Amino acid sequence: MPPRKRLGRAALLLAAAAYLAFLLLFELPSLDLFPSPSSDAAAGGAAMPTHRPRRRELEASSSSSAFASPVLRRPATAVSPAPASAAAAAAGALPIFSSLLLLPRPNATATPFDGTAAEAFAAARPHLNHLRAAAAAAEAAEEASSSSSSPPPSAPTCPTSISVHADGLPGDGVRTVELPCGLAVGSHVTVVARPRAARPEYDPKIAERKSGQEPLMVSQFMVELVGTKAVDGEAPPRILHFNPRIRGDYSGKPVIEMNSCYRMQWGQSQRCEGYASRPADETVDGQLKCEKWIRDDDKKSEESKMKWWVKRLIGRPKDVHISWPYPFAEGKLFVLTLTAGLEGYHVNVDGRHVTSFPYRTGYTLEDATGLSLNGDIDIESIFASSLPNSHPSFAPERYLEMSEQWRAPPLPTEPVELFIGILSAASHFAERMAVRKSWMMYTRKSTNIVARFFVALNGKKEVNAELKREAEFFQDIVIVPFMDSYDLVVLKTIAIAEYGVRVIPAKYIMKCDDDTFVRIDSVLDQVKKVRSDKSVYVGSMNYFHRPLRSGKWAVTYEEWPEEAYPNYANGPGYVISADIARYIVSEFDNQTLRLFKMEDVNMGMWVEKFNNTRRPVEYRHDVRFYQSGCFDGYFTAHYQSPQHMICLWRKLQSGSSRCCNVR
């Protein structure tokens, strides 16, 4: 081998040896070859950016201060979290409870809202006393059980089948059968009934008639799966609305309409008008959404061509029209069976599949705790089978994973960038657990973001007891001491503002619901587009929205005298800056804060007044703070069920912000 080649090879070998020595001496010792258990646990979720180095945390003895908030009636002087013992002593309440108080206003400035709120606070006192007494009794029982080996009490069970006959139901009006633990996949509900003869419809909203015109004849009934209303004043959710209209509606033909109503918002209806769904359309468990009951052989299919030749041979001049009967007829007995499948509900009438309805976002099968029947129908019997024997309200341990990995970390000792207050109802155990296991994990990776649930009391003592137990374990719940009501949701929003001002001072404060999925990084990016020294109000804005003056959601001129509301962001998710939150708390302390029954509109009123009297506010509108569900590229997605929460989180960890359309 020539000397040059030998020298070249020797030089390469020396360079390789030098590089290997460098790796062994400098790089290898810095590699984490044996990670600690804590780092493994932290790696359970996807890596998330931390905006600052980790702050010094509160000592263990004061970790429960996350739930003690100063009394709102006092001036806002504290700007940092207080130790649990001191805060609890100042509030005179359990550490997990907010000390929000609504002081009576002078008669000249009092409103109907003040009376409703005062009643809700008064009604909550016996429940608070019961929780305190139960806590003392539980400690005594725990001490006694430590010396005995008696088994723990079992959760209440529900029947797996229910049978109701006509004599057990009212003859008219809304007839309801309770399904205590809801439904499960494979559950069946069978209704044997008879539609009544058609009657004249005089409701002008349905039948507009000219003078002397005959009244419109209608025959229709509704079979609905309904849920338990979460708070007073809110209509129970209609999980499934099945509405056969035998005499038809505006189409003039018999029709079956299906829909759902989640938190008082109707979805898009599914109408079956006699024609089969196209095979290319989405099916439900392999079955068509609509079966056909009208057959028209005018279509020139291969089958109709053959029949055309046969008709030519036998001398029949016209095409044959075959009509399959509409599933329901006036005065004719029918047997309707409703089945819960994997992907949706299936309706069979007299043994024949008629329609299928996919599950809608926001519901689980256990939510369907009642069967409601109404309209022009006489019921013979109702039978439900294959029902589950437990429910989240009775057995929250099925939904609450008492694991340390889901507990909230101690509060930072310094102000944070974003505080998120999540409105929730006491019985929403599954919803809160889904939030902890999805987007709330982001807050565990950053000391610059804190999130807490804000919950009012329930009318059932056992639900409140489980809520208190959940709050004490997860340390992420603030219980506002009044009886929950739809018209009083705004008081939870005030408690959120107070928490973000006094307990954990934050630069920005966000409010959302427990069925809202939040992309925290995207929300922060939107907020940071505004100069940090400006006041800001970010969300999906409503401009020049007019109040309804009649109907269920009517607003009187006494409540709001103007013809349009101030600009306001939709309630499922919006952000305000800290100066606006401080203003809200200050006005509330001084008993000058205007209180209105619609929470998101009320926030718009407060921001408008701040904008007019204190300093200009920059309103930032973005439809990606989505109100009506989810669309790809969302910042917040509303009406998401616990299953959808987990699905969206998994997609987000894989880099996708697409929606989940599966159950």
Automatic annotation (TrEMBL):
Gene3D superfamilies: 2.60.120.200, 3.90.550.50. PROSITE patterns: GALECTIN. SMART domains: Gal-bind_lectin. InterPro entries: ConA-like_dom_sf, Galectin_CRD, Glyco_trans_31, Nucleotide-diphossugar_trans. It is a single-pass type II membrane protein. The keyword Transmembrane applies. Keywords: Glycoprotein, Glycosyltransferase, Golgi apparatus, Manganese, Membrane, Signal-anchor, Transferase, Transmembrane, Transmembrane helix. It is found in: Golgi apparatus membrane. GO terms for molecular function: carbohydrate binding; hydroxyproline O-galactosyltransferase activity. GO terms for biological process: arabinogalactan protein metabolic process. Residues 175-385 form the Galectin domain. It holds the Pfam family Galactosyl_T. One of its GO terms (cellular component) is Golgi membrane. Residues 42-66, 133-166 are annotated as: Disordered. Pathway: Protein modification; protein glycosylation. Its cofactor is Mn(2+). Possesses hydroxyproline O-galactosyltransferase activity. Transfers galactose from UDP-galactose to hydroxyproline residues in the arabinogalactan proteins (AGPs). Is specific for AGPs containing non-contiguous peptidyl hydroxyproline residues. Utilizes UDP-galactose solely as sugar donor. The addition of galactose onto the peptidyl hydroxyproline residues in AGP core proteins represents the first committed step in arabinogalactan polysaccharide addition. AGP glycans play essential roles in both vegetative and reproductive plant growth. Belongs to the glycosyltransferase 31 family. This is Galectin domain-containing protein. It comes from Oryza meridionalis. The lineage of its organism: Eukaryota, Viridiplantae, Streptophyta, Embryophyta, Tracheophyta.
